Amino acid sequence: MSIKKCKKCGNELNVKERKCPNCGYKLKRGGCFLILIAYLLTIVGVSYYANYAKEKEQKENTNSNIYSRSWRSPKNNEYATFGKIIVNSSISVCSEYKVKQINDDEYLIACTNDGENWNYFVINPTISQIYKAHYKITNNISPPR
Ligand SMILES: [Zn+2]
Question: Is pTM beyond 0.70 here?
Answer without folding.
Answer: no
